[in-house]
């Protein structure tokens, strides 16, 4: 009941209610944020404090949107998880030190020749396709155009374009499998 009264006071933008919420929920919010930011290691204290501050700023900013009769703890936990996840997404990835011996070897000469031959066979098979399948394949898979745009430009409806791609992939797979390489 006391928590619902606190939420009601927050909806009315009571500063004392915000101060009370900060005192009451900072340990909980800090734990949620720290667990996500540390990911098995340690998180800088400043990062945790900044995200916790962002959570309580969001509480103040969105206090009018709090649902009457609802507890604050689940709402704060969800916001804390989202803010911590946002922080993790903004952080640059940690570069891993690699020595010359740690690098994965590229394909050897034999594998390179086999890959080139396979790519040539694939290209010849696509080139042998009839229109509009040839253009459909090239624009969608090679140039990365959206299927609906390619279909529109070729005067096809989307379901027809999808069917043609499906049949074309099947035909390519059969053609390439005959030569001993699976697609």
TrEMBL record:
Pfam families: Sigma70_r2, Sigma70_r4_2
Keywords, ordered alphabetically: DNA-binding, Sigma factor, Transcription, Transcription regulation
Ranges that cross the membrane: none
Domain RNA polymerase sigma factor 70 region 4 type: 120-172
Record region (Disordered): 84-112
Ranges of residues in domain RNA polymerase sigma-70 region: 22-91
GO biological process: DNA-templated transcription initiation
One of the record's GO molecular function terms: sigma factor activity
Keyword Methyltransferase among record annotations: no
Highest taxon above the source species: Bacteria
Family: Belongs to the sigma-70 factor family. ECF subfamily.
Name used for this protein in its record: Sigma-70 family RNA polymerase sigma factor
Organism: Candidatus Intestinimonas pullistercoris
Lineage summary: Bacteria, Bacillati, Bacillota, Clostridia, Eubacteriales
């Amino acid at each position: 009941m006391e928590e619902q009264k606190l939420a009601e006071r927050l909806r009315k933008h009571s500063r004392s209610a915000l101060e009370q919420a900060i005192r009451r929920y900072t340990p909980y919010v800090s734990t949620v944020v720290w667990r996500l930011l540390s990911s098995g290691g340690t998180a800088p204290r400043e990062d945790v404090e900044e995200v916790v501050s962002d959570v309580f700023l969001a509480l103040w900013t969105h206090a009018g949107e709090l649902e009457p009769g609802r507890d604050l703890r689940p709402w704060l936990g969800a916001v804390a998880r989202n803010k911590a996840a946002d922080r993790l997404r903004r952080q640059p990835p940690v570069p891993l030190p690699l020595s010359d011996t740690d690098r994965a070897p590229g394909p050897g000469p034999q594998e390179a020749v086999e890959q080139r031959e396979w790519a040539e066979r694939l290209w010849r098979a696509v080139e042998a396709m009839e229109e509009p399948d040839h253009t459909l394949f090239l624009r969608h898979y090679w140039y990365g155009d959206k299927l609906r745009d390619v279909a529109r430009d070729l005067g096809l409806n989307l379901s027809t374009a999808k069917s043609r791609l499906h049949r074309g992939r099947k035909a390519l797979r059969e053609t390439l499998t005959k030569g001993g390489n699976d697609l």
